[in-house]
Amino acid sequence: MRGSNAIAVTRDASELSSRVAAFPASLTEALIVVPVKNHPPQTARRKHREQTPDLPKGTSRFRRALLAWYDQNRRDLPWRRTRDPYAIWLSEIMLQQTRVAAVLDHYRIFLERFPNVAALAAASEDAVLAAWSGLGYYRRARMLHQCAREIVKRYGGRFPENSAALLALPGIGRYTAAAIASIAFGEPIGVVDGNVERVLERVAGSNLTVRQCWERAQGLLPKPRPGDFNQAMMELGATVCLPREPRCPACPVRRWCETRQPASLRYSRAKDLRANDLPVHGVRADPRAKVSPRQNKREIWCALERRDGHVRLVKRPRTASLMAGMWELPQWEELPHASAKAAHWRTFRHSITVTDYTVHVLRDWKNGKVPPGRGKWVAIEKIPELPITGLTRKVLKAGGII
Q1: What secondary structure, in 3-state letters, does 144-203 show?
Q2: At what angle do helices 85-95 and 174-185 cross, to 10 degrees?
Q3: Nearest-angstrom CA–CA distance, 195 and 280
Q4: Is 29 marked active-site?
Q5: Where are the alpha helices (DSSP H) in 205-305?
Q6: CATH 2.40.128.20 is right for the domain spanning 59-276
Q7: pLDDT at position 261, please?
């Protein structure tokens, strides 16, 4: 071949030569045969880019040690005494971004008012918000209500028994679907929340991507008792493998851990502190997200007025960005009148998302004026039936009203 720079070697070089010779000279002069490179398969290249660290040696012993520890040391929580998917689902939603201690009473009261998914679906949104009042993040309650209605409508009030079907329901994400399916129905599917992520990374001794965390959680999971194992991983992260001061000597799986002592943590301390900001359950924080802004500071004035067994409350607009449709005490951005100083009762501190409030409460201020057209005298015995804001609940409790 005149003008060629290279010739590809084939199984039968003579056959190639004879075929090329048959081409017209004008074509063969234009041919340039490019050497072929041996590329690895595409799947192999993907694995090379992001390979999940190996599971710890002795994985079966790791599982047995963790489950034995869990059986002896787990906290006695009400949602651990049942396999009812409704009760488990409720606990998982309540525990998102909320501490266990804050959930316990609300969980009990909520189950008393709405003992099953049909009762929750049949309730009004105001009744659901009233039962949720004090837990915050009220969008969770609205999505809970919407999901209950969907379960009744599509499944006749029976929960789907696998994670894929649960994931299709409103307000249920990957973690919650896996938690319900494994705990209530025994589906062998792993879970990853903030606590589990921290345990997995410390055992591995390295940072893990989201995909790697889920793969590793699934690889560690035993087929027997998948729900208990998932809860054991979460319990370990919540009580032993703590973000800032892990209790390594008390850890049942320390022999398999690559970072046995706080001083030997081999990955970024900043990453560990970020893990502390993750919710106990639910969606992981995006590591690429910007640092949360500092808390804003605001000062407001509220009026606590009573008359003949009633309290004056104001309903927030349905279009409000926060706590839409909920009831609260009348409030102002500044002291409403000079005469109000004499009625000052107490000052409270209260936080809502990124704002810290200093709240000055006026009690039985006779010259008070509420925002026009929205104030209403509510019977004290009816207040538990209304969705009231957390601040209003705090003030009414301090005043001995509820």
Answers
A1: HHHHHHHHHHHHCCCCCCCHHHHHCCCCCCHHHHHHHHHHHHCCCCCCCCHHHHHHHHHH
A2: 150
A3: 6
A4: no
A5: 210-220, 226-239, 269-276
A6: no
A7: 57
Q: pTM (2 decimals)?
A: 0.69
- Cα–Cα distance between 59 and 64 in angstroms, integer? 9
How many angstroms separate the CA atoms of 95 and 118, rounded? 22
d(CA 10, CA 19): 13
Q: Consecutive 10-residue runs of the chain (402 residues): their mean pLDDT?
A: 42 45 41 43 46 70 97 97 97 92 94 97 94 89 97 97 96 96 98 96 93 96 96 97 93 90 43 35 37 75 90 88 86 82 88 84 71 74 88 91 88
What Å distances lie between residue 124 and 93, 135, 148, 152, 385, CA to CA?
19, 18, 12, 15, 11
Tokens of 232: 């054991």
Q: Are 185 and 85 in contact (CB under 8 A)?
A: yes
Of 73, 72, 92, 95, the residue nearest 82 (C-alpha): 92
pLDDT at 380: 93
CATH superfamily of 296-398: Nucleoside Triphosphate Pyrophosphohydrolase (3.90.79.10)
| Percent helix, percent strand, percent coil in the chain, to nearest 5 | 45, 10, 45
**314/300 Cα distance (integer angstroms):** 15
Q: Decide whether 59-276 matches 296-398 in CATH topology.
A: no
- The first and second tokens of residue 17, run together, are 């030569």
Kindly write down the DSSP assignment for every residue of 62-110, as one continuous string.
Answer: HHHHHHHHHHHH----GGGS---HHHHHHHHHHHTTS-HHHHHHHHHHH
Q: In this predicted structure, what is the pLDDT of residue 318?
A: 81
Q: Which of 50, 92, 197, 245 is catalytic?
A: 92
Would you kindly state where each structural domain of the chain is located, as residue ranges?
1-38, 59-276, 296-398
pLDDT of residue 220: 96
Short-list 80, 71, 141, CA closest to 106: 141
CA 166 centroid distance within chain: 16
CA distance 233 to 196: 6
Q: Which of 12, 63, 37 is nearest to 218 (CA)?
A: 63
The token pair that represents 67 in the structure block = 């489950």
Give the pLDDT confidence score for residue 275 in this predicted structure: 33
